[in-house]
TrEMBL record:
Name this protein carries in UniProt: Amidohydrolase-related domain-containing protein
InterPro entries from the UniProt entry: Metal_Hydrolase (IPR032466), Metallo-hydrolase_Enzymes (IPR052349)
SUPFAM superfamilies in UniProt: Metallo-dependent hydrolases (SSF51556)
PANTHER family for the chain: CYTOSINE DEAMINASE (PTHR32027)
A Gene Ontology molecular function term of the record: hydrolase activity, acting on carbon-nitrogen (but not peptide) bonds, in cyclic amidines
Lineage of the species this protein comes from: Eukaryota, Fungi, Dikarya, Basidiomycota, Agaricomycotina
Length: 391
């Protein structure tokens, strides 16, 4: 199992936020920003929450993850320092790829022609040893032209440092909005042609809910551009947060997340990830990537064996490909491949694992058992209720 997209610094933050009233995205940004103001003075808490996320993830069977840590004027390098420390501390049980992430905009106002201090901090953070990726959320910029500048800045830095790139992109369900995925594909294609992109560096696109509105022709165009130009890009759907946030107030009601199964039918490989855990953006659900499979069966309305295999691939081999970490590229073990596995004690097939994942598990990393998780069972038999109590 692999976390292709998880926020290490904002996990388990809900009890430190103001009570949710509307539950919408604007409120989540507001209450999280307020809670973030304590990070700088309380790095011990950031470390403790991150340690909890990693420990529980490994117990689920996660042996690789991309961990987003934010860098901005509010938190400075606190989250990055913590992420790099946790990467070292857990190196024997999980491959943690630290991604420097800009949640806040580079431009303060729509009138600004030059970015502000957040970009300078972002550049400085990308130089730190141990960083594996850089990413941003272009949709937070004041304007579309500035969002496109955001994308070019991140790609420039990724190339200069030899890092993977990650974008929280097209996070809306507005058919009138410009899908910035086309701008990103054009940029990546041009950079590869001009020798301004390193082989092996992957571009990951999370959320991309706007693409859920794509027509068949638009998906055919997407696949054609990726395949013809061998673009190292993969989409990552984030169902727990996408379904919770998207489509609020729409008439008729909408819920949007990338349909992994429909994409597979169109020849587009994609991954799934949990994104946030226990915060205002995603207050519900477990951090187990495998739990996305039964959710996917319901949301995408397909419980066939082929569909379940596609869902399992989305949280394993496709997730690893999306973030560019070494590992198996098939669910079938191969001689000489990495011995990273999760044993599901109560499942006897991949089909049952996708439909009803076992809680009891053993995690193996590099051929070594690194975690075990068991459920304890006890049942009061009916006949025992008729016995006289022993005093």
């Amino acid at each position: 199992l692999c976390h292709a997209h998880v926020h290490l610094d904002k996990c388990f933050l809900l009890d430190q936020c103001d009570d949710l009233v509307t539950g919408d995205f604007a409120e989540a940004l507001k209450v999280t920003a307020k809670a973030k103001r304590t990070f700088l003075s309380n790095p011990t808490d950031v470390h403790a929450r991150g340690r909890r996320l990693i420990t529980q993830s490994v117990e689920c069977g996660v042996t690789a993850m991309r961990a987003h840590v934010e860098v901005d004027e509010t938190v400075a390098m606190t989250c990055l320092d913590t992420g790099l420390r946790l990467k070292r501390e857990y190196s024997s049980v999980c491959d943690i790829q630290v991604a420097v992430f800009a949640q806040d905009p580079f431009f303060s106002n729509e009138e600004d022609s030059e970015p502000g201090v957040n970009l300078s901090l972002f550049r400085d953070a990308s130089l730190r040893d141990g960083v594996g990726a850089v990413g941003s959320a272009p949709y937070v910029e004041p304007s579309i032209p500035q969002a496109k500048c955001n994308i070019t800045y991140v790609l420039d830095i990724a190339h200069a440092r030899g890092l993977h790139a990650d974008f929280h992109l097209d996070y809306n369900l507005d058919p009138a909005s410009e899908p910035l995925i086309w701008f990103l594909l054009d940029e990546l294609r041009a950079r590869i042609a001009e020798g301004r992109w390193h082989a092996g560096m992957q571009v990951c696109v999370g959320h991309a809910t706007r693409l859920a509105l794509f027509s068949g022709d638009e998906w055919a165009r997407f696949r054609r551009e990726v395949e013809e130009h061998a673009l190292p890009i993969m989409l990552v759907g984030l169902p727990p947060s996408d379904l919770y946030m998207m489509g609020r107030g729409a008439q008729p009601a909408q819920r949007g997340t990338l349909n992994i199964l429909r994409l597979a039918e169109r020849g587009v490989r994609a991954a799934m990830a949990v994104n946030n855990v226990g915060n205002a953006f995603t207050p519900q659900g477990p951090l187990d990537p495998l739990a996305l499979c039964p959710l996917g069966v319901a949301v995408f309305q397909n419980g066939t064996k082929d569909a379940c295999q596609t869902l399992v691939e989305a949280v394993t081999v496709n997730a690893r490909t999306a973030i560019g970490v070494p590992g198996p590229r098939s669910l079938m073990p191969a001689i000489g491949g990495p011995a990273d596995f999760v044993l599901l004690h109560d499942n006897d097939s991949m089909y049952s694992a996708a439909l009803d994942p076992s809680y009891s598990r053993t995690t193996i990393k590099g051929g070594v058992v690194v975690a075990k998780r068991y459920t304890s069972r006890w049942l009061l038999h009916e006949e025992s209720t008729h016995r006289s109590p022993v005093i």
